């Protein structure tokens, strides 16, 4: 389950909080959600009140723990994310920047949870071009690219340690297939 603090001013305005307040609130609420998902019938006292776990059940009951993955930085340090998240959902950056971020994240996860796999995931906006060999051209948070060069990009992301990549077709200009 991906969780975030919000990253747009409208997010904070809608919730009636400042961006500065969002970090501590995210941390507290992340811990509450994590306990609700991982503990059997927890009783939790928080700023929002009391959660009496004896009256709560996840239906259907999960077969295993539901992982919580931090989205972006959520106004937390990379150290906190590596220690507390079950994985990390990040936004696209250049291959070089993302490689360094993943390297730092992996080093910290190994410190906080030696041997545990904590995936690194990211989104990627794509506009898939007609010409399969069209080289990547940057667009906001991704690329306009031909399918063969997209496969090359996917290999690059895999090589730097991206475990899951979610395509976002927001900027896609090609029509979908019609049945």
UniProtKB/TrEMBL annotation:
Q: Which UniProt keywords apply?
A: Monooxygenase, Oxidoreductase
Keyword Cell inner membrane assigned to the entry: answer is no
List, alphabetically, the InterPro entries matched. Luciferase-like_dom (IPR011251), Luciferase-like_sf (IPR036661)
Any one Gene Ontology MF annotation carried by this entry is: oxidoreductase activity, acting on paired donors, with incorporation or reduction of molecular oxygen
Q: Which Pfam families match?
A: Bac_luciferase
- Top-rank lineage group of the source organism: Bacteria
Q: Where is the Luciferase-like domain?
A: 1-121
Q: What name is this protein filed under?
A: Luciferase-like monooxygenase
- In its UniProt entry, the species of origin is given as Peribacillus simplex
